[in-house]
Design goal:
Number of strands: 6
CATH topology of the largest domain: Rossmann fold
CATH class of the largest domain: Alpha Beta
Radius of gyration: 18 Å
Organism: Streptomyces citrinus
Number of domains: 2
Strand content: 5-15%
Protein name: Response regulator transcription factor
Largest sheet: 6 strands, parallel
Strand order of the largest sheet: 2-1-3-4-5-6
Oligomer: single chain
Number of helices: 10
Order of helices and strands: EHEHEHEHEHEHHHHH
CATH architecture of the largest domain: 3-Layer(aba) Sandwich
Shape: globular
Structural class: alpha/beta
Length: about 220
């Protein structure tokens, strides 16, 4: 029998913390620590070496982006640990800061979405599998940014839709199911996206797809 996933939770509001912990436990995930500040979160991640860390962005001691910075530090020191950041507000820049140069094992969810337990559990499973789990609203905000010489301007509306789903971490098969088209059709769109954006063909894998999208959005 496989061992249950192990999670460390960081959230300073007791009711929210217990609610999230309850969702995880009902899904068979072992919550090995639940803390209320960023300092203890880093310590708990080092002590328990969990599969995933789930943290709010705004936490003590400074009540600013302490949770985000803790997640970044955990990713830097323990890259095998997946990190999901929860945010009360839509701020795409936080997602870019968390992702950095590697989107594998990263999640960014709006707290309002976590009211649906399955969204959180799906995100946990995805990041532990080294995929990404970025909130669709965050991806929409990134795609909607206006910038000089927008590299996305050459994309068709369908390619933009596919790009958004890629950035959320969906595979070609997952995109085909959401778009009700064949996998081959999705592959053609993906090829077109990379050609139009001038992306290198040397890197491979789903992680490279997400990273490429976010790099261009950051420009």
């Amino acid at each position: 029998m496989s061992q249950p996933l192990r999670a460390v939770l960081g959230e300073d509001q007791p009711i929210v913390r217990e609610g999230i912990a309850s969702i995880l436990r009902r899904a068979g995930i072992d919550v090995v620590a639940a803390v209320d500040n960023a300092t203890d979160l880093i310590d708990a991640a080092e002590k328990h070496r969990p599969d995933v860390v789930i943290t709010d962005i705004r936490m003590p001691p400074d009540l600013e982006d302490d949770g985000l910075r803790a997640g970044q530090k955990i990713r830097a020191t323990r890259p095998e640990t997946a990190v999901i950041v929860l945010s009360q507000y839509l701020d795409a820049s936080y997602a870019l800061d968390l992702v950095g140069d590697d989107p594998s094992g990263v999640g960014y969810l709006l707290k309002e979405k976590v009211a649906s337990p399955q969204i959180l559990i799906d995100a946990v499973e995805r990041v532990v599998a080294r995929d990404s789990a970025l909130d669709p609203d965050v991806i929409a905000a990134l795609l909607g940014r206006k910038r000089p010489e927008d590299p996305l301007a050459a994309l068709t509306p369908k390619e933009r839709e596919v790009l958004a789903l890629m950035a959320e971490g969906h595979s070609n098969k997952g995109i085909s199911e959401k778009q009700f088209v064949s996998v081959a059709a999705v592959e053609r769109h993906v090829t077109g996206i990379f050609l139009k954006l001038g992306l290198s063909q040397t890197a491979t894998g789903q992680h490279r797809r997400v990273l490429a999208v976010l790099r261009y959005l950051e420009q």
